[in-house]
């Protein structure tokens, strides 16, 4: 079977070298990769903290490891890199308002139902999936820190995921093969 490229797609393709002068093009290219949306939570001496994150991925089944990467420029970076335990909550398609709570200027935990897990980490019930983790390792990665967590407990339920692509939230729409 021969795969042919759409000529219009090729002619509109923008090729560039990522640097300071092409930062917007680089962000647009990265935004073409659709991700899920998570809220990562931890406990600090000042109380619970959360952050909306789309830089989450599975790493290993054995041992069970996941990864996420907060920006060093985030005001919450130091709190999360100091946390020995954290929880990653995968959001469902109807939880975009929950996502907004944990962005800059959001309500956070204010008037939100949540519990502490065995390690004292705030957990939000009812998300599509949850991974309760202990810190495994951290790695410097340019303007981000890679945080690997060993999953101690996980939970999940049926539902559609909240997706993020090109700066907007959306839903996953499945297609059937013909």
Textual characterization of the structure:
- By secondary structure, the protein is α+β, with helices and mostly antiparallel strands.
- Helix content is 15%, strand content 39%.
- It has four helices and twelve strands.
- The protein has helices at 7-12, 23-31, 77-82, 96-101, and strands at residues 35-36, 38-44, 47-53, 56-60, 65-68, 85-90, 115-116, 122-123, 129-141, 144-156, 162-165, 168-171.
- The strands form three sheets. Strands 3-2-6-9-10-5-4 form a seven-stranded antiparallel β-sheet.
- A hairpin with a 5-residue loop joins strand 7 (115-116) and strand 8.
- The protein is globular, with a radius of gyration of 18 Å.
- The two termini are 16 Å apart.
Helicity level: 10-25%
Number of strands: 12
Q: Helix count?
A: 4
Low-confidence stretches: none
Pairing-aware structural class of the strands and helices?
A: alpha+beta
Characterize the quaternary organization of these chains: single chain
Strand content: 35-45%
Task: Name the features.
178 residues; alpha+beta; 7-stranded antiparallel beta sheet; 12 strands; 15% helix
In short:
With 178 residues, this protein is α+β, with helices and mostly antiparallel strands.
Outline the fold blueprint.
Blueprint: H1 7-12, H2 23-31, E1 35-36, E2 38-44, E3 47-53, E4 56-60, E5 65-68, H3 77-82, E6 85-90, H4 96-101, E7 115-116, E8 122-123, E9 129-141, E10 144-156, E11 162-165, E12 168-171
Antiparallel strand pairs: 1-11, 2-3, 2-6, 4-5, 5-10, 6-9, 7-8, 9-10, 11-12
């Amino acid at each position: 079977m021969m795969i042919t490229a759409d000529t219009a797609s090729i002619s509109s393709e923008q090729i560039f070298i990522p640097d300071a002068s092409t930062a917007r093009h680089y962000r647009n290219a990265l935004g073409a990769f659709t991700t899920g949306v998570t809220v990562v939570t931890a406990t600090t001496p000042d109380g619970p903290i959360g952050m909306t994150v789309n830089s989450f991925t599975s790493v290993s089944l054995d041992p069970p490891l996941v990864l996420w990467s907060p920006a060093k420029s985030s005001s919450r970076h130091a709190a999360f890199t100091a946390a020995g335990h954290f929880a990653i909550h995968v959001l469902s398609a109807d939880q975009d308002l929950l996502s907004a709570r944990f962005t800059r200027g959001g309500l956070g935990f204010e008037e939100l139902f949540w519990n502490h897990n065995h390690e004292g980490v705030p957990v939000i019930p009812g998300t599509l999936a949850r991974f309760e983790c202990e810190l495994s390792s951290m790695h410097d990665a340019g303007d981000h820190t890679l945080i690997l967590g060993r999953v101690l407990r996980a939970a999940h339920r049926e539902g559609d995921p909240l997706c993020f692509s090109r700066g907007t939230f959306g839903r996953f729409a499945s297609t059937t093969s013909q």
